[in-house]
Structure prediction request, 333 residues.
Amino acid sequence: MRERPQSFPSVALAKLVQKGRKITYGIVQPGEFVADGVILVRGRDYSAGWRDIDGFMRVTPEIDAPYKRSKLKPGDLVLTIVGANTGTVAVVPAWLDGANITQTTARIAVDSTKAIPGYVEQVLRSAIGQEAVYRFQKGGAQPGLNLADVEKFEIPLPPLPEQRKIAEILRTWDQALEKITALRALNIRRRVWFRTHLFTGKVRLPGFTGEWREVPLSDVLHEHGSKSTGAEEVYSVSVHKGLVNQVEHLGRSFSAANTDHYNRVLPGDIVYTKSPTGDFPLGIIKQSKIDREVTHELCHVAEPHHGAAFFELLDKVMPDWERRKQRLERAMA
Prediction:
């Protein structure tokens, strides 16, 4: 565990909970979804911020009744104790008052006379809390934490006013990051809309007219089939970053010992991988982007040969291409 400041005593989490509401997990077998039932909180419901109320699982009052010990109140903490998101923590909002939890979630009812719930949340989310999770986490196919171990988590405890101030500062940063994340998600949806509508010709940009036509992909691109010499660096295709060096991006190379059979990617090449992702179920398409060569290859899309039309087009899209070419050649010499 990392060192704590001398002035902050460390207190076991079990000593910070409300009397009669010890750290506990919830319903073991929730049964079928019931539209008007009791809300059941699972780790997925808060792993990326609280989901909308309509997305929660609900159980019958009969299933909920034996688990009164794990009922939630506003200000309680929920901590994922089983699965890939073990260690994820959140503060229960007022609109989840009376909800229950599953057996994969622990309820931590912090006594506000001893600690500020928002402060304890931030400690559990910090390196201090995550180190405790790592230390006590049990391995196997389903990683997890025992409640007895969660009770041992040590919380550095400054005076209550200082706890409150620390929680306020960190929560302000959290809210700012949440807004940035939401804005990014909105911009991604807008980009998807533009791609979906502009490429069909059904929505036209102002000032543009004329008919759209469809041609076979082979009319504008060809697979050159150049093979690796074995000396090139091995790159992977990333959804968000395009072509990335495996060692730099992933920490190590996943390539075979002999890469002679790998395809060589030239500057400006369009690269396709069949590996599906959630956003790209049919695979990923990216372009290798390097200054002049990118423009060179983009011109090839419109004019596949190095004739007069090719250089005429190159002059239009990059008038200083010859200077760039000389600079690139000097750098490669």
The CA atoms of residues 42 and 85 lie 11 Å apart. The radius of gyration is 28 Å. Confidence is low (pLDDT under 50) at residues 290-304. The first strand starts at residue 10 and ends at 12.
